[in-house]
Amino acid sequence: MLTRVLSITAAVLSLTASVAVAEGLTDRLQATRMTALKIDREAGKFMCAEHRRWQAVSKAGLSTVHSGDIVRVDRKDGQLPRITVVRRASEELASPEM
Q1: How far is 25 from 33, CA to CA, in rounded Å?
Q2: Distance between CA atoms of 71 and 81, rounded to whole angstroms?
Q3: d(Cα 19, Cα 25) in Å, to the nearest integer?
Q4: Distance CA 49, CA 70 (A)
Q5: For the chain, which residues make up each domain, given as ranges?
Q6: What are the CA-CA distances from residue 47 to residues 17, 63, 94 (Å)?
Q7: What pLDDT, in 10s, does the model give residues 8-64?
Q8: Which DSSP string do the residues of 10-76 spell out, in sequence order?
């Protein structure tokens, strides 16, 4: 009986931990991955489609970003966030997932 209770408890704790990790990863992806709606290269900003606001980023990364691209924004303390293209808009439109 004790073994059964311990194994059920272990299974419940394992499931709870898995859900917490998955939720944390989903939240992180949603916070760092965005769709570029408009780009202002001179100001070093892009408008994020998900948040409908301008995000200031390093100008160096904006040179390769185009409207509709899915981008990742990496933040470091004391520095402007860096932007990286995860998937091009043209790739997204041509994807067979649609």
Answers
A1: 12
A2: 12
A3: 10
A4: 10
A5: 33-94
A6: 35, 15, 23
A7: 666 555 655 555 444 555 565 556 788 999 999 999 999 988 888 898 998 888 888
A8: HHHHHHHHHHHHHHHHHHHHHHHEEEEEEEETTTTEEEETTTTEEEE--HHHHTT--TT-EEEEE--
